[in-house]
Write a structure and sequence with these properties.
The complex is a heterotrimer of chains A (499), B (331) and C (158).
Chain A (H helix, E strand, L loop, with lengths): L1 H13 L2 H19 L5 H8 L8 H26 L8 H12 L3 H32 L6 H18 L4 H16 L1 E3 L4 E3 L13 H19 L13 H10 L4 H16 L3 H16 L11 H17 L1 H7 L5 H12 L7 H5 L1 H32 L4 H20 L3 H18 L5 H23 L11 H27 L4
Antiparallel strand pairs in A: 1-2
Chain B lengths: L1 H20 L9 E5 L6 H15 L7 E5 L6 H9 L6 E5 L2 H8 L9 E11 L1 E5 L7 H10 L5 E4 L5 H13 L4 E4 L3 H9 L5 E2 L3 H9 L3 E6 L34 E9 L4 H15 L2 H9 L2 E6 L1 H22 L5
Parallel strand pairs in B: 1-2, 1-3, 6-7, 6-8
Antiparallel strand pairs in B: 3-10, 4-10, 4-11, 5-8, 5-9
Helix pairs in contact in B: 4-11
Chain C lengths: L1 E2 H24 L5 E2 L2 E2 L3 H23 L7 E3 L1 H24 L1 H16 L4 H22 L8 H6 L2
Antiparallel strand pairs in C: 1-4, 2-3
Helix pairs in contact in C: 1-2, 3-4, 4-5
Chain lengths: 499, 331, 158
């Protein structure tokens, strides 16, 4: 019940003209980066991050999260209209969305996408509202071993659930860890892996890496594919939207199932991309209409969209309460929290209730703002894609490098962004997963610190990772996820009838 | 034409300024405040307070841009200063890490790469214990630590920094031994102490005040020659002034304080240094500065010139002794 | 044409080399297990080792299943647009370091639009000038963030 009271307090914080204005600006900017294939939500948020350094944290997080919601909506728009996923997480939306648009049902497809996305987002926020009180009670139980266990869980779930080649996932995570280790090691107080270069002393910023990996890398892939923009004009009439809305309750099963998948994947850091694919896959397998998937079936739009947004929003809870990001974008925001002087983690709910509940309330409001804005501005954003790529492409390049420089005003970061652009391009083409690398860069050194702090506390005994029920549960869950592919195979072998 | 006009305007401004304040040097483009910590850190707050005061009282003819270069525990900012040698438009904000860091970390910068301008305040250190423990005063805590060496945990910010230096000092004067656990910063050390995962820390007043108010931690003593100014009560029955000094409580350390320092790159003109000394002096006399120092429970102390040099030399020698004893000095 | 096979091997070779470089860098700080947990170099050393081993595993997988990797990584037809897009980016970075980001932005946009997309100068020039000015107003004026500047801004006294 105190969740509801806190939420009301949060609405008091979030509902100021200034904050609502930031929501509108954020959603619009997010739609912009979401619509543009080169820019994604992690990119848009990291570009805005340096600009929030001087803002109040509540205002800053509202701006960034609103950008995130906007980007999620914008990504699905281009998926449906142009068969170009504006976001990695909206790839699955193209499978049925684009066929629908080609059949002249673009409005219907967009409305299904936005409304189910809105539903997924609200489901995610409700979950956060209900669970946060429970999380706050665990606030002070977290020390270094528990933190390590949670980081371990995050990495384990990436290896366990990801579809990519396990070896390539390991290379990606390992490189991320190595990059995170560059610079000051706070446990020993010595500079590591700088190889005598002044430029490496401050370490390698994950923001610059994200801009290169996602922004520049994706642009080159787009160029190479020849960029066929086969646009379909979008006209949204209110009547069509309302008719689709009235039709939504018929898909309650798909909505709830996809919402549950999304929330689970958001809280265990699987991320929106994995969530949307998983949801589409399960819907195809279990829905009565499964056979018609891929030919323009509304449920094929509803399932990935609901899961995508449910995962995107619920990923905020582990980020705030545990300091563990559930998606690449929330990983960027996690970096933001620390820059604003907030310590993500259980104490945040006790120390800064205004921040946490202001954010949660803003998530309800901003998603409503986003649905309204997206339904009214779709034609405008779609027009951007009619701008020739020869103009918009180089402008995206400029935005990427300006973003990389503003992170820390370092000339060296321009080269770094370029290098990460090459890495992003090659990794994408060879199916190396990029998100685990970003995850490792963001929490890699923290995981290491937590591990070493724990062992300092226990005077070198690893038993500290099984010292109490909390840490034992987290570690076991991590091990279970890590070994899940193996377990699944064993179960399958055991079930096979003996001939 | 435009340039000539500008030159005239600049020289007019210069002559007026030299009439008014009797020094020749004035900044000619925006001044850059280089902060040797990340946004939100203690040094960052310090620089941004100075920036806002300069802006409010229009103490500088040029605007100020703050850039954070806190990588490598501040080494990034000092390396930047080294590469800006001779540029009087860049002002570097730091602590005693400006001259201590090169002792313990292999960095390319040396203290000679900086020109001292001023120290503006001293941040205090206290000994805190968690409220989950039974210790109400320094003597009983120290006695307990002495009875069981390497059992009690002392939390602090990263290794070889001020917190661990102070811990090492207490260990040698009191004959005790803690397990020192380095966290990412004072904030994390405060949370861990509040949760009872560590037994004590040596945080600055500002870092632990939230937990103290919430009754999760307890101050035992302050490492200063005199008690802190009384001020209003922080908890129901205690204010800063009620905390005894550690010397009163039997820990033989006169004082342990961290200066908030301002520097210029090397090889800058002497009258540029004079300009910034004057500027910082004016800042330190404003009510806003006093408000900042009081709010963060620091001790205001403006030092420059020979006084600053002597302070740095003494602080450097004291810390070096600890580094030597602990074997932290880099070759 | 670059085959997928060659690209897989070259990438895995590069990541393996990065892993080994990390391992070498880590040895400087001690890679053992001290009395209170691992030494500073331990984690980088083992992540480097894991990267090197996993890369070797990818090389092995690729060589064993060579037949599966005959698809092109980059065809000659794709190479042209990719180079045409990425080489100007490298030039843009170098120009930024010499002339500052604003001037480099204008030159880069102008060059790509005029020489690659064959726009007329009277279309390209206004866009190429408007973007950096827009950036300047947004960053330096609205958000007080300073971008990399070059000699031109110095002459203008910005």
């Amino acid at each position: 019940m105190d969740g509801i009271a806190s939420l009301l307090h949060g609405f008091g914080v979030a509902l100021t003209a200034y904050h609502v204005m930031l929501m509108v600006i954020g959603v619009m900017l997010g739609l912009l980066v979401g619509v543009l294939p080169g820019l994604g939500a992690p990119n848009g948020v990291s570009l805005l991050l340096p600009l929030t350094f001087t803002m109040d944290p509540v205002a800053a997080i509202i701006l960034l999260t609103s950008t995130y919601w906007g980007a999620l909506f914008g990504g699905s728009t281009t998926s449906i209209l142009f068969n170009i996923p504006g976001e990695p997480s909206s790839v699955a939306t193209t499978f049925d969305g684009y066929p629908m648009a080609k059949q002249g049902r673009a409005t219907e497809a967009l409305s299904y996408a936005f409304l189910s996305a809105g539903f997924g987002a609200l489901l995610g926020v409700v979950l956060i509202t209900l669970l946060s009180g429970w999380v706050a009670r665990f606030a002070l139980k977290f020390s270094s071993p528990e933190y390590f266990a949670v980081y371990f869980l995050a990495f384990a779930s990436f290896i366990g659930l990801g579809g990519a080649s396990p070896l390539k996932t390991i290379v990606s995570i390992g490189l991320g860890f190595s990059l995170a280790a560059v610079g000051m090691d706070s446990i020993s107080g010595s500079l590591r892996l700088s190889y005598g270069f002044d430029s490496l002393v401050p370490g390698i910023s994950f923001l610059v890496a994200v801009i290169g990996l996602f922004g520049l890398g994706e642009l080159v892939v787009t160029i190479e594919e020849g960029l066929k923009i086969d646009g379909i004009r979008a006209r949204l009439s209110l009547r069509d939207v309302l008719r689709t809305a009235a039709d939504m309750p018929r898909h309650w099963l798909a909505l709830l199932r996809s919402g549950a998948i999304g929330c689970w994947m958001g809280i265990t850091p699987g991320g929106p991309t994995a969530a949307s694919f998983m949801s589409y896959g399960l819907a195809k397998r279990f829905s009565r209409k499964g056979a018609r998937f891929g030919q323009g079936e509304p449920e094929g739009v509803i399932s990935p969209e609901t899961a995508d947004h449910a995962a995107g929003t619920s990923a905020m809870l582990p980020m705030l309460a545990l300091g563990v990001p559930g998606s690449a974008t929330s990983a960027v925001m996690l970096g933001g929290l620390m820059i604003w002087g907030l310590n993500p983690g259980p104490m945040l709910f006790i120390e800064r209730p205004d921040f946490v509940w202001g954010l949660i309330a803003s998530m309800y409001l901003a998603n409503v703002v986003a649905v309204v804005l997206v339904l009214t501005t779709v034609p405008m954003f779609a027009a951007i894609l009619r701008t020739p790529f020869a103009v918009i492409g180089p402008i995206i390049v400029v935005v990427c490098f300006v973003g990389a420089y503003t992170v820390a005003s370092r000339e060296f970061d321009l080269w770094l962004a370029l290098a990460f652009g090459v890495v992003g391009y090659i990794f994408k083409k060879l199916d190396y997963p990029i998100a685990p690398m970003v995850l490792a860069m963001v929490i890699g050194d923290k995981a290491e610190d937590a591990f070493r702090q724990s062992l300092i506390m226990s005077k070198g005994s690893p038993a500290i990772f099984w010292a109490n029920p909390l840490v034992t549960t987290l570690m076991s869950l991590g091990l279970l996820l890590l070994l899940w592919p193996l377990i699944a195979r064993l179960v399958a072998v055991a079930r096979r009838p003996i001939p | 034409m435009l340039r000539i006009g500008r030159t005239i305007a600049v020289s007019a401004a210069l002559s007026m300024a030299s009439l008014a304040a009797a020094h020749a040097w004035q900044p000619t483009k925006p001044i850059e405040f280089v902060v040797t910590s990340g946004p939100g850190g203690g040094t960052d707050n310090f620089a941004r307070v100075v920036q806002s005061i300069v802006g409010k009282y229009k103490l500088s003819p040029q605007p100020i841009i703050v850039t954070n270069k806190g990588g490598g525990s501040g080494a990034e900012g000092y390396i930047y200063a080294r590469s800006s040698s001779g540029d009087p438009q860049k002002v570097i904000f730091g602590t005693n890490n400006a001259y201590l860091l090169p002792h313990v970390v292999k960095t390319p910068f040396k203290p000679d790469d900086l020109t001292p301008v001023a120290a503006m305040a001293l941040d205090e250190f206290l000994l805190w214990v968690t409220s989950q423990s039974e210790f109400k005063d320094t003597k009983s805590y120290i006695a307990a630590v002495k009875a069981k060496p390497e059992t009690y945990k002392m939390g602090g910010s990263q290794s070889k920094d001020t917190d661990q230096t102070l811990t090492s000092l207490i260990e040698s004067v009191a004959g005790v031994k803690w397990i020192y656990v380095p966290f990412q910063g004072g904030g994390a050390a405060a949370v861990q102490l509040a949760g009872g995962h560590t037994d004590s820390n040596t945080n600055n007043p500002n870092e632990n005040i939230g937990q103290w108010k919430a009754g999760q931690v307890r101050p035992l003593c302050v490492f200063s020659t005199t008690r802190l100014p009384a001020g209003p009560k922080v908890t129901a029955d205690m204010g800063w002034g009620d905390i005894p000094t550690c010397k009163e409580e039997g820990i033989a350390i006169d004082r342990f304080q961290m200066p908030r320092t301002v520097w210029l790159p090397a090889k800058v003109p002497a009258d540029a240094v004079a300009f910034y000394v004057e500027l910082m002096k004016k800042v330190s006399e404003t009510p806003e500065w006093r408000e900042y120092v009081t709010r963060t429970v620091q001790t205001p102390r403006f030092m420059t010139g020979a006084e600053l040099k002597a302070f740095v030399a003494e602080d450097d020698a004291n810390n070096r002794k600890v580094f030597e004893k602990e074997g932290w000095l880099v070759k | 044409m670059i085959t997928r096979y060659a690209a897989e091997l070259a990438t895995a070779g590069t990541t393996a080399a990065l892993g080994i470089v990390t391992m070498i860098g880590a040895t400087e700080y001690g890679i053992g297990w001290g009395k209170s947990g691992p030494e500073p170099g331990t984690f980088p050393f083992y992540t480097g080792l894991i990267v090197a081993l996993a890369s070797a595993g990818i090389v092995a997988q690729t060589v064993v299943a060579r037949g599966k990797f005959t698809t092109p990584f980059l065809t000659a037809a794709q190479l042209r647009p990719v180079l045409a897009f990425s080489l100007p980016i490298v030039a843009f970075v170098i120009a930024s370091l010499v002339l500052g980001l604003y001037v480099a932005t204008a030159l880069y946009l102008l060059a790509t639009m005029v020489f690659q997309a064959k726009y007329r100068l009277r279309v390209a020039l206004p866009i190429a000038v408007a973007v950096p000015i827009g950036l300047y107003l947004l960053l330096e004026k609205a958000f007080q963030v300073s971008l990399l500047k070059g000699p031109l801004e110095g002459m203008l006294g910005l």
